[in-house]
Amino acid sequence: MARRERTRHLIELGGLVQKAGLVELADDDRATLYGAMLDLAAKAREDGNALALWKRRGKRAFDADAEGGKEQFDDG
Protein backbone atom coordinates (compact mmCIF):
# COMPACT_ATOMS: atom_id res chain seq x y z
CA MET A 1 0.00 0.00 0.00
CA ALA A 2 2.75 2.48 0.95
CA ARG A 3 4.67 1.61 -2.21
CA ARG A 4 1.61 2.36 -4.35
CA GLU A 5 1.10 5.71 -2.60
CA ARG A 6 4.77 6.61 -3.12
CA THR A 7 4.54 5.69 -6.81
CA ARG A 8 1.44 7.84 -7.24
CA HIS A 9 3.16 10.73 -5.47
CA LEU A 10 6.19 10.49 -7.75
CA ILE A 11 4.00 10.34 -10.85
CA GLU A 12 2.16 13.48 -9.70
CA LEU A 13 5.47 15.29 -9.17
CA GLY A 14 6.57 14.30 -12.67
CA GLY A 15 3.28 15.67 -13.94
CA LEU A 16 4.11 19.02 -12.38
CA VAL A 17 7.45 19.09 -14.19
CA GLN A 18 5.57 18.44 -17.43
CA LYS A 19 2.81 20.96 -16.62
CA ALA A 20 5.38 23.68 -15.93
CA GLY A 21 6.76 23.21 -19.44
CA LEU A 22 10.18 22.13 -18.23
CA VAL A 23 10.28 18.88 -20.20
CA GLU A 24 9.92 20.69 -23.52
CA LEU A 25 12.15 23.57 -22.44
CA ALA A 26 14.97 21.17 -21.54
CA ASP A 27 14.30 19.04 -24.63
CA ASP A 28 13.50 16.10 -22.32
CA ASP A 29 17.10 16.01 -21.06
CA ARG A 30 17.10 14.56 -17.56
CA ALA A 31 20.54 15.94 -16.67
CA THR A 32 19.34 19.45 -17.52
CA LEU A 33 16.16 19.02 -15.50
CA TYR A 34 18.06 17.62 -12.52
CA GLY A 35 20.60 20.44 -12.68
CA ALA A 36 17.83 23.01 -12.77
CA MET A 37 16.18 21.42 -9.75
CA LEU A 38 19.48 21.40 -7.87
CA ASP A 39 19.81 25.14 -8.58
CA LEU A 40 16.26 25.70 -7.31
CA ALA A 41 17.00 23.81 -4.11
CA ALA A 42 20.18 25.82 -3.55
CA LYS A 43 18.33 29.08 -4.15
CA ALA A 44 15.60 28.06 -1.69
CA ARG A 45 18.24 27.35 0.95
CA GLU A 46 19.88 30.76 0.40
CA ASP A 47 16.74 32.88 -0.04
CA GLY A 48 14.25 32.51 2.79
CA ASN A 49 11.50 34.12 0.68
CA ALA A 50 11.87 31.88 -2.36
CA LEU A 51 9.59 29.10 -1.13
CA ALA A 52 6.81 31.51 -0.15
CA LEU A 53 7.06 33.26 -3.54
CA TRP A 54 6.99 29.96 -5.44
CA LYS A 55 4.02 28.79 -3.38
CA ARG A 56 2.03 31.95 -4.23
CA ARG A 57 2.87 31.63 -7.91
CA GLY A 58 1.95 27.95 -7.93
CA LYS A 59 -1.38 28.54 -6.21
CA ARG A 60 -2.23 31.32 -8.64
CA ALA A 61 -1.31 29.13 -11.61
CA PHE A 62 -3.39 26.22 -10.27
CA ASP A 63 -6.33 28.58 -9.74
CA ALA A 64 -5.99 30.00 -13.27
CA ASP A 65 -5.77 26.49 -14.69
CA ALA A 66 -8.87 25.43 -12.76
CA GLU A 67 -10.71 28.39 -14.27
CA GLY A 68 -9.70 27.26 -17.73
CA GLY A 69 -6.81 29.69 -18.24
CA LYS A 70 -3.24 28.82 -19.03
CA GLU A 71 -1.75 32.07 -17.78
CA GLN A 72 1.60 31.87 -16.05
CA PHE A 73 2.59 34.36 -13.39
CA ASP A 74 6.07 35.82 -13.18
CA ASP A 75 5.57 38.18 -10.26
CA GLY A 76 4.79 37.54 -6.62
Defining key terms:
mainly alpha; about 75% helix; about 80 residues
Structure description:
This protein has 76 residues and is an all-alpha fold. It is 74% helix and 0% strand. The longest helix has 18 residues, at 2-19. It is globular and about 35 Å long. The mean pLDDT is 91.
Short description:
The protein has about 80 residues and is mainly alpha-helical. The protein contains four helices and no strands.
The helix content is over 70%
Largest sheet: none
Number of strands: 0
- Beta-strand residue fraction: under 5%
- What integer value in Å does the Rg equal? 14 Å
Oligomer: single chain
Structural class given helices, strands, pairing?
mainly alpha
Average pLDDT reading: 91
Low-confidence stretches: none
The N- and C-terminal alpha carbons lie at a distance of: 38 Å
The string of secondary-structure elements, in order, is HHHH
What is the tally of helical segments? Answer: 4
Organism: Sphingobium cupriresistens
Protein name: Conjugal transfer protein TraD
InterPro entries: Conjugal_tfr_TraD_a-type (IPR009444)
Write the layout of secondary structure elements.
Blueprint: H1 2-19, H2 22-25, H3 30-46, H4 50-66
